[in-house]
Amino acid sequence: MKLLAGDEAAAAVRQLAHRYASFDPAVEKKVAEIVGRVRQEGDAALTEYAHRLDGLSEGGAMRVSEAEMKAALDTVTTEFVQAVETAAKNIRNFAEWQLPRPWIRTIHPGLRVGQVIRPLDSVACYAPGGRYPLPSTVLMTVIPAQVAGVKRIAVASPRPAPETLAAAAILGVTEFYRIGGAQAIAAFAYGTESIERVNKIVGPGNTYVTLAKKQVAFDCGIDFLAGPTEIVYCATEGNAEFIASDLVAQAEHDPEALAIFVTASTRLAKSVIKHTTEQAQDNVIARQSLAARGVVLVAKSRKQAMEWTNELGGEHVTIPSEDVYELNCAGSIFLGDYTPQSIGDYASGPNHTLPTGNIARFRGGLNVIDFVRIITLQEASHKGLEKLAPTVTLLAEAEGLKGHAQSVRVRLKK
Predict the structure, then answer these.
(1) Please, are residues 75 and 81 in contact by the beta-carbon 8 Å criterion?
(2) Can 253 be counted among the known catalytic residues?
(3) Catalytic residue among 108, 315, 379, 382, which?
(4) Topology annotation, domain 25-95+121-222
(5) 2-21+227-349: which CATH number, 3.30.360.10, 3.40.630.30, 3.20.20.150, 3.40.50.1980?
(6) pTM of the predicted model over 0.90
(7) Tell me: the pLDDT tens digits for 16-65?
């Protein structure tokens, strides 16, 4: 990890705060070709890509049967099932607390306004199946959709591990496809002969998945475009070994992961670098990402350290508990020494599908609100309309919209 201080550190913060996902034009072109073919040719193209890229055997079914998902439960340990059930309970509780509520209120006599909550009709949940199969992503995407009341929940994962299928079975998933990449995203966005299109696609994936979501985003809802994992850890006092363990844990996700430690203590900075180097010694991927993108930034004060942390807008952000009201920009916040970021990755309750690339400056992580429509409503009586009429007609005529004003006046004449 690099250690930067003073003007050098401030310059690094500015540069990192303006990080954007950049993609190889050749890959974008390839993804566009895949998306276009699946959209035009349907199952013929999807099956071809599934055989070539997803490891689907000749004659194998893209859709995983419910019996196969249930059979997967027999191949995993009792301890794994118990762990999934514990995590699922916490994730479900959190999503239920997060669910918006309908309401209707009288804004003035004769005029009621409010909102109703309606679930999306269908969603597709993508669970990566590459370097690390992620059954935890099945929990994080399916459970909020279930809490929201989504009727049709489909899951896709290329080469699904038994643990991934078992997690789906525990949640009661009935629609699961062993497909992945851009072809899976296109299939859910536009539909094929065997896969009905969905209202929204959620979940993380590789570059092909991310680019495909970008390309279909105007035709199908998506959550956001997520890149490699990020961690920003801000502390001026604390246990260097604990801090290093979080940096290594997130760095091991991907050689392109971004690991940042922000502090106002040079002593702590050097200690964290020492422990990080030791802990990553036998972790090849963590070692690669820390060498390429790991950085320790030494601020001149604790206040500046927090300002930098806000500016960086990290995916996973750890800060001291007492600073919680100072942090405005983060995918998810972890407080204090005894809250390792890994508990958020698996089981504490909040979602682990989080924004990267400083997207946290305008939205948080995946949540139950992503699976509902908040629809406003209004109802006026004759008396209520009469009171509001002067305001509406004046504004309508100021905009030159005579029909708008007349739609009010005609009702008052009656």
Answers:
(1) no
(2) no
(3) 315
(4) Rossmann fold (3.40.50)
(5) 3.40.50.1980
(6) yes
(7) 999 877 788 999 999 999 999 999 999 999 999 999 999 888 888 999 99
- The residue written with tokens 């030159």 in the block is 400
Q: How far apart are CA 178 and CA 60, in angstroms?
A: 10
DSSP code, position 42 = T
Kindly list the distances between the CA atom of residue 106 and the CA atoms of 62, 73, 379, 397, in Å, as whole numbers in the listed order: 52, 52, 9, 27
SS3 295: strand
State the Rg of the chain over Cα. Answer: 25
Amino acid code (one letter) for 378: Q
Instruction: Name the segment(s) of the chain with CATH classification 3.40.50.1980.
Output: 2-21+227-349, 25-95+121-222
Respond yes or no: is residue 316 known to be catalytic.
yes
Of 316, 322, 386, 399, the active-site residue reads 316
Q: Look up tokens 């004759």; give the residue.
A: 382
Helix (H, G, I), strand (E, B) or coil at 108: strand
